[in-house]
Specification:
- A hairpin with a 2-residue loop joins strand 6 and strand 7.
- With about 110 residues, this protein is an all-beta fold.
- The strands form two sheets. Strands 3, 4, 6, 7 and 8 form a five-stranded antiparallel β-sheet that branches. Strands 1-2-5 form a three-stranded antiparallel β-sheet, with no helix packed on it.
- It contains no helices and eight strands.
- The protein starts with 5 loop residues before the first strand and ends in a 12-residue tail after the last strand.
- It is elongated, with a radius of gyration of 16 Å.
């Protein structure tokens, strides 16, 4: 079974997107697929899983960046990661939170 990925950082947070920096855990001898799950439900009952990447056993552990898109402005999001391979699924990472920004008025042109 693969080890859990590591969520290193949530950065470049905007009104409709953010970037997560993460690294894969030990693969257990098999290719692994890494997913993140995201929710805006503070009861943690509704999660949407998104496949990030499939990583081969010959790849080295490195920091990777993934865009998280189609977010709603000024919303709190909860995110966690996990890996799967033919042996099973890793544990989930701890839940991290971030809040999207609002759209600045300077982005609009008033006539």
């Amino acid at each position: 079974m693969p080890d859990s990925p590591v969520l290193a950082e949530i950065k470049s947070i905007g009104p409709h997107s953010a970037t997560i920096s993460w690294s894969e855990g030990f693969h257990g001898g098999f290719d692994q697929t890494v997913y993140y799950e995201i929710s805006s439900d503070n009861t943690y009952t509704t999660w949407t899983p998104i496949e990030i990447d499939t990583i081969g056993i010959s790849e080295t552990i490195s920091i990777r960046n993934t865009a998280v898109n189609n977010l709603v402005e000024e919303t709190i999001y909860y995110i966690r990661l996990y890996s799967t391979n033919i042996v099973g699924r890793s544990e989930m990472t701890d839940i991290s939170t971030f809040t999207t920004t609002g759209i600045a008025l300077s982005q609009f042109c008033f006539i």
